[in-house]
Amino acid sequence: MLSEKLHTALNEQMNFEFYSAHAYMAMAAYCTAEAYDGFANFFLVQAEEERFHAMKFYNFLSDMGYRATIQGFNSPENDFDSILNAFKTALSHEKEVTRRIYNLSDIALDEREHATMAFLKWFIDEQVEEEATFDTLIHKIERIEKDSNAIFMLDGELATRTFTPPTNA
Fold first, then answer.
1. Which member of 8, 40, 68, 118 lies 3.0 to 4.6 Å from 31 by CB, making a disulfide possible if both were Cys?
2. Per-residue b or e along 66-81, where b marks 16 or more CB atoms closer than 10 Å to that residue's CB
3. Distances in Å between the alpha carbon of 70 and those of 11, 140, 145, 162?
4. Per-residue pLDDT tens digits for 61-120
5. CB 69 within 8 A of CB 18
6. pLDDT band at 38, cuts 50/70/90?
7. Is residue 16 pLDDT above 70, yes or no?
8. What dihedral angle (degrees, nearest 10) is formed by the CA atoms of 56, 3, 8, 90?
9. How far apart are CA 117 and CA 124, in angstroms?
10. Residue 144 exposed, middle or buried by CB count within 10 Å (0-12, 13-18, 19+)
11. What value does the CA radius of gyration of the chain take, rounded to a whole number of Å?
């Protein structure tokens, strides 16, 4: 049984995951406007992944016998100085997601709510991957930022990214 505190925190994280999708849509729109279609695709796929994460929380709450409550949120940042700035903003956002997942894990651990602890393990592992992906791309962009041919090649590489929901999720 979930405490009110844990139920509320899980619901807030579900809504934050939906917000994350909107934040990545805004980054995609920036990239599209700048004619970086591959970078835009990267962020569109990221938005799809975040909606998947939100639905995991939605389904977990439902499976545990609790109602998910959908809430509104503030507008995400829409303007960026550069592709590099968009990716640095994204990494900062992912670090906030990690902080929030750790906080949820701490609540579940304190309350000895084992089902929630098991559920959140997947997200802890996912956040390691998310932060590493953005960190790697930031390093690549920093190395090639002034080389338009290299940016063009990375843009083409990111155009091939797709999202396939994990089967073990």
1. 40
2. eebeeeeeeebeeebe
3. 8, 37, 40, 27
4. 999 999 999 999 899 999 999 999 999 999 999 999 999 999 999 999 999 999 999 999
5. no
6. very high
7. yes
8. -50
9. 10
10. middle
11. 17
